Amino acid sequence: MTDNSISGRTRVCGVIGDPIEHTMSPAMHNAVFRQLGLNYVYVAFRVTAGELKKAIDGMRALDIRGLNVTIPHKVAVMPFLDHIDLLAEKIGAVNTIINDRGKLTGYNTDATGFLQALAERSVEPRGKKVLLLGAGGAARAIGFALADAGAYPVILNRKEELSWAEELGQRIGKAYNIPVGVGELKEDNLKDALPDSNILVNATSVGMTPNANQSPVPADLLCSNLVVFDAVYNPFETRLLREAKAAGAQTIDGLEMLVWQGALAFQIWTGQTAPVEIMRKAALQVLKA
Ligand code: NAP
């Protein structure tokens, strides 16, 4: 499908957020629509917080088939939907909406995309101890996803916002009836927790461009029996992942999660399996540009 073949039958998908200019989703989804010859188009809409309800009303009125939802709307959008998937309900955030003849259902494919990124590398979270760094939006989806998959997360966040981590830990613990340790993100706690952990997840923004020379974990604490996942995808290989690789650990980059959240959204909207390689290639092209 090329832009020239947009017709009266073209189905519209898109992403809403504010800001939205730097999103990689249009490149990923349009590449797949073209590849599979699907009569769909994907566009980015800047929607301010005050216009969110109107935007969702517009989704119904214009029969937009699917929307991704990004910062700052993932929580605020929920009351405007007709149905919320169980995992998204527990997380308290939605990043994907499907419109079935005016009935809107919300999902969280950040969470399922993260789990799929692990599964693709044969990493089984069930029964594993996971050290999760951060307590923001990404950490929230990842923490619930881990508990949902039977893992035991321990959350470390920087001191200033420790109450966020405490609240997140309590919510996950209550939802899954598991103990969730919470602490300050500092070297002593990393030293204590890492030898006991099977998987390390960075869900902070530490190491993201323009601070690509930073890492949330000192290199000498990394070891070969860890799986290290970094949610940061810009740069594609972070300092944490480079140092983890050098220590002999298995590493998984944030682009995998980004691509899988897109692939799972695509499957929800079209009912077809997404060719993830095409999505990854399109995302990498945008990153390199
Ligand atoms: P967010 O809600 O703003 O949360 C940022 C987190 O990073 C918070 O826990 C914050 O701690 C922590 N943090 C920020 N600066 C820090 C520092 N200097 N030292 C220690 N901790 C620090 O952002 P988000 O949406 O969760 O995104 C976090 C990262 O994940 C970003 O790089 C984003 O691009 C990436 N991400 C990737 C995907 C993917 O699909 N791969 C999806 C979503 C996000 P405080 O609470 O103390 O502020």
Q: What is the structure about, briefly put?
A:
This protein has 289 residues and is an alpha/beta fold.
Number of helices: 10
Output the structural class.
alpha/beta
Q: Considering the protein shown, what is the CATH homologous superfamily of the largest domain?
A: NAD(P)-binding Rossmann-like Domain
What is the domain tally? 2
Euclidean distance between termini CA atoms: 23 Å
Bound molecule types: NADP nicotinamide-adenine-dinucleotide phosphate
Which CATH class of the largest domain applies here? Answer: Alpha Beta
Spatial strand order of the main sheet? 2-1-3-5-6-4
Task: Work out the strand percent.
Answer: 15-25%
Description:
- It contains ten helices and twelve strands.
- It is globular, with a radius of gyration of 19 Å.
- The protein is an alpha/beta fold and 289 residues long.
- The chain folds into two domains: 3-107 and 256-288, Leucine Dehydrogenase, chain A, domain 1 (Rossmann fold, 3-Layer(aba) Sandwich), CATH 3.40.50; 112-252, NAD(P)-binding Rossmann-like Domain (Rossmann fold, 3-Layer(aba) Sandwich), CATH 3.40.50.
- Helices cover 39% and strands 19% of the residues.
- The model has no long low-confidence stretch (mean pLDDT 96).
- The longest helix is centred in the last third of the chain and has 17 residues, at 254-270.
- A six-stranded mixed sheet has the order 2-1-3-5-6-4, sandwiched between helices.
- It has helices spanning 25-36, 52-61, 86-91, 109-120, 137-148, 162-176, 187-193, 239-246, 254-270, 276-288; strands at residues 11-17, 40-46, 66-69, 83-84, 96-100, 103-107, 129-133, 152-157, 181-184, 199-202, 227-230, 250-252.
- Helix 5 (137-148) links the parallel strand 7 (129-133) and strand 8 (152-157).
- Bound molecules: NADP nicotinamide-adenine-dinucleotide phosphate.
- The site of NADP nicotinamide-adenine-dinucleotide phosphate has 25 residues, from helix 5 and helix 9.
